[in-house]
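Hi team,

Filling in the usual template for the complex we talked about on Friday. All components are listed, including any nucleic acid strands or ligand strings, so the model treats them as one assembly.

SUBMITTER: L.P.
PURPOSE: interface mapping
COMPONENTS: two
RESIDUES: 257
SEQUENCES:
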Amino acid sequence: MEQLFTVSGTTLTMHLPAEVDHHSSEQLKTEADRMIRNYNIRRVVFDFGRTVFMDSSGIGMIIGRYKMARYMGGSAVAVRVSARMQRILALSGIGRVIDIYGEVPQQLNLD
Amino acid sequence: MQQNEMKLEFDSRSCNEGFARVTVAAFLTQLNPTLEEVADVKTAVSEAVTNAIIHGYEGQVRTITITCRIEAEDFFVEVADEGRGIADVALAMEPMYTTKAECDRAGMGFAFMEAFMDGLEVDSAPGMGTRVRMRKHIANVNKMER
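RESULT (copied from the run log):
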């Protein structure tokens, strides 16, 4: 199975799967929350690089992890977001609280 | 393609969400939809099926029935469960309304169905299950008559 999480300093990158639905979100949530707590995470990066499908369960998963990062005094961003995923994210209004990028911007200092 | 129908019954397990939307998308292809239209229908079906699993059956494994019908350039899909039903459908359909916020539910399911389909009707009552009927107009029909 492909790697779903990488930790670098206090940044947790979630490499989202091809399909982010209720089924896959449930599995991602548990593991992400454990890592955010255990690694003192301050920033969560949602990497959409391989994601081709997402529904509102994915939105719920992202909002939940964003809230957790914020509770720890941190923030969240979404990177490598395709046009379709942009549309899904825009519909949810989540762009008001997390920055959304089509690529991986230099200033984020990610690998 | 004048008229064509199919019916799908499956267990309300979350691992069937992907199966359900992909199967509906496969049936839809005979209308020669654009990739975006296929994605719209897949998203809407995924929302309705997820609602049936989480809210209708509340995690119990029972049967979800999907019926699809093609009529000229219109695609109709109904997702039905025989679960607990919805007391106040109008309230349930309000964006951000959810009864399961603690489970990280965004309350956007019906809003997504509405956004991605051309018609949405919800028929439900407590103890009577829920039927979600959706319509999508697919232009350019008959390019690939089968």
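MY TAKE: The CA atoms of residues 42 and 71 of chain A lie 9 Å apart. Residues 22-38 of chain A form the longest helix (17 residues).

Thanks, L.
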